[in-house]
Amino acid sequence: MPNFGGIDHLSLSVTDLNRSERFYAEVLGLMPLFDFGTARTLIDRPSGFILALARHEAGTAAPFTELTTGLDHIGLLASSRDELVEWERRFDAFGVTYTPIRDMEFGSHLNFRDPDNIALEFSTSNEVMAGWLEELKTREMTQDEIKARVAEYFASLQA
């Protein structure tokens, strides 16, 4: 099987290029790279992640909804739960719509919206999930083994 190397870039359809570029640059700290007229690209310099923003002439002005087939949300990586708290403070300072941090079985996440209502999320894995993900990089696991581990983990949470 050919190798899947990861995500090269993400492109979002937006209603206002200036407004969206300002949001992703000012709030998330992405650096603008190119302006192609109907599309712009930004980069997160530390990770190399590239985000493209496109305004389609035939596009609608309707806000994003995850209830339409296609994109549900974009999950971005946070290094820790403390970093999620820092993001909450930043969102407050910029007036960004978000829901408070939620602590779940496998980690924590912070959901927020861009100017077109596109659903975004910062998340961080807890130690258990981080360990499992590292292990999956180094060895094959059967679906049965994964299911058994998950069941065991959930049982330990209820004990």
From TrEMBL:
Signal peptide: none annotated. Residues 6-125 form the VOC domain. It comes from Kribbella steppae. Pfam families: Glyoxalase. This is Glyoxylase I family protein. CDD domains: VOC. PROSITE patterns: VOC. It comes from the Bacteria.
